[in-house]
Amino acid sequence: MAKGSKKEVMFERMQEQKKEVKVVRKIVFWIALALIVAVALGGFFGYRYIKSALEPMEADSDKKVVVEIPIGSGLDTISQILEEKGLIQNAKIFKYYAKVNNESDFQAGTYDLTKSMTPDELLKSLKTGKVYRTPVFTLTIPEGLTVEQIADKVASKTSISNKDFIAYIDADSTIEMLKASYPQIVTDEVKNEEIRHPLEGYLFPATYPFYEDEPTVQTVVETFLNGTKTNVVPYLGALEEKKKSVHWLLTFASLLEREATAQADRQTIASVFYNRIEADMPLQTDPTVLYSLGEHKDKVTHKDLEVKNAYNTYQNKGLPPGPIAAPGAESIEAVIDPSDTGYLYFLADKTGKNHFAKTYEQHLEYKAKYIDGK
């Protein structure tokens, strides 16, 4: 082969190699570009997905979702529970979000959460045992109110009339539903025919936040019952030891709530009632007479004491058939942990101070001194 021909062949091969290199470069360029676009799109859509996963599930929802966080639950378990309850979109993203923000030390317990809560609100609630949201309004129920008085309080803050409130809490269907929802609290004892209102004493006095303009009567009642559950459940063990029921506890505590003016008095009055029951004496507490009469009076007369009614503890020994008002935490605690005394009598002077006596003679002396002014 001629030298010129060899050079031409080599030149052609070099040209072909250059073309191949250009093609390879183009392929590499387009592959790299495709990868960059894919990464960018993946990052964009990944960001959008993560961002949406950290938003409230239903921004306008005020419906409560009851969540039970067991003792010893870690972040994995909590995240899974929240996803199963529909409060977060993705358990893994919520878990990593919490870890990035160094969130830990979550509290076990029962929470009333909503789908409108953000991850930050959920985390803050689970760390402190409280639900952090701005309420639309609050409703305060003072200690010692009857259900009629509570109905008036509800009517003053909501569109629920006092008549509708009473009708709801007295309905058999309501009681059956609450028995199923609150088996530790609401039992067949509230269905005693002598009881005026089944839920008397069961609507716990406190200040409650509400997160919707017009809560239903069921929401309001269950909110109050949750307050009772929170304050009574810690004493279930003590009640079991005493072989007593929650109904007994709330009934006893309601008498203290209407009689006492201070915590020390509650515990001492509780000891008086225990002592009188043990001695087979009637409790003879005036608030039960007023409840029997169904009206408020500044002074109970001798005629009032003779009223024939199951709630009248002058005419009937032991506790009345049910609570006469809503007892607070201090009264409930006083029933469980009363003072140890030998008192059988007490009376309040004109300033409201209680005077306790071990004998009837001493009680009469106090009456003459502090009531009759002799």
UniProtKB/TrEMBL annotation:
HAMAP family: MltG. The keyword Transport does not apply. Functions as a peptidoglycan terminase that cleaves nascent peptidoglycan strands endolytically to terminate their elongation. Belongs to the transglycosylase MltG family. The chain crosses the membrane at residues 27-47. It comes from Sporosarcina aquimarina. It catalyses: a peptidoglycan chain = a peptidoglycan chain with N-acetyl-1,6-anhydromuramyl-[peptide] at the reducing end + a peptidoglycan chain with N-acetylglucosamine at the non-reducing end. Gene3D superfamilies: Classic Zinc Finger, Endolytic murein transglycosylase. InterPro entries: MLTG-like. Keywords: Cell membrane, Cell wall biogenesis/degradation, Lyase, Membrane, Transmembrane, Transmembrane helix. Coiled coil: none annotated. It holds the Pfam family YceG. Its EC number is 4.2.2.29. It is found in: Cell membrane. The keyword Cell inner membrane does not apply. The record marks 259 as: Important for catalytic activity. The gene is mltG. This is Endolytic murein transglycosylase. It is an enzyme of class 4 (lyase). It is a single-pass membrane protein.
